[in-house]
Amino acid sequence: MEINYNHFKETFVRVKMLIGSGFIMEKIYLCIDLKTFYASVECVERGLDPFKTDLVVADIKRNKGAICLAISPKMKNRGIKNRCRIYEIPKNVKPIIAKPRMKKYMEYSAKIYKIYLKYVSKDDIHVYSIDEAFLDVTSYLKMYKMNSYTLAKTIITDIFKTTGITATCGIGTNLYLAKIALDIIAKKSKINIGYLTIDKYKELLWHHTPLTDFWQIGIGIENRLKKLHIKDMYDIAHFDEKKLYKEFGINAKLLIDHSKGIEPCTIKEIKEYKPKNRSLSNSQILSKDYNYKSVRNIIIEMIDNIILDVIKNNLFVTSVGIYIGYSNNIIPNLGFNIKLDDITDSYTKILNNVLTEYDYRININIPIRKVGISLNVIKKEYEQLNIFNYNNNDNEVTLEKTLNVIKDKYGKNSILRGVSYLDDSNQVNRNKLIGGHNAI
Description:
CATH topology of the largest domain: Alpha-Beta Plaits
Largest sheet: 5 strands, mixed
Helix content: 40-55%
Mean pLDDT: 85
CATH class of the largest domain: Alpha Beta
Structural class: alpha+beta
Oligomer: single chain
CATH architecture of the largest domain: 2-Layer Sandwich
Number of helices: 17
Number of strands: 14
Low-confidence stretches: 1-24
Strand content: 15-25%
């Protein structure tokens, strides 16, 4: 999300002055996370205690190299890492292996969202992921005659009594501090609640390591910071800003603000944000090595599937990005972008452009394990016609709209192109998934 941080910084300074003068109530946010959500749901469904049960959520059909989408709190307490592979689990641990059920997890998430609505308006809730949400409770504390701890405890207790799911909560005076209070303090607290103000953040976490514990700092950013001899948030806050901008570009602003505990963006601003450019993407990690011909068919399926979303959302495509991941990194992966001569929503035009470029660039001798497609799109407000190469595709769009109607009514597999019935096709099975995982 692109944010004008210079504008927000000026706003923040003014707001801080007003808070100090007593004109504006200090913001209070909750960041609530559902502890080892998928694994906890599977335990609750089986009448088991997640804190006393060894359980992993993984699709064993994908062999022992399958990634565990979640592990129970008991397994975490054993020192086993979340998102491990099945073969990495110690041999002395014999967990229940639960097949992912994304539809079930979404049902639980919806129940918990309804619990949030008992306490705050939907306008004051930002759903960050299926198992995490931010709540702006600033204006509710006085109404409920509660402090932030009491309200947080009330909500997470309600979640447990209603669903059996244990939640943790970070409380902060901005969204970033609430998130950090959750990730670093609450998850290690006996009461599952953490609290941070800017002053407390500096006192407790300025010298906390590793930096990867902090939101939006991955191992790549940490390594780049190490090259600058930066080891903690204190170092970032006191480092030469010009050097940080030279290393990280505009992203340095986020690092600098966060190192000081500053985050001026609000839930209201997140909800009001409308990106200028949009993209639709689809990617697959293939279950085995595919040759270039089989992947060509997979690409045809993916384009077919994604164009239905283009038509449904009244969009035009401006360019297409393709990613090919070769097996075992035998040679560097392939990535390229295709700028279309004319913006279009035509399946035929887009597919022909993609296949022509794919056939030209692909190494036909190397097996493939990953494939991804990304369409850059714009809203269909107007179409710039090319008088030298105009092709009315109204009939094609009508067909795609009809396919959408049929699929919406009878299911995604109710009508498919012939390529989806070939031996190496994935579309029939993928249409049964949610988020790339088993739905039921």
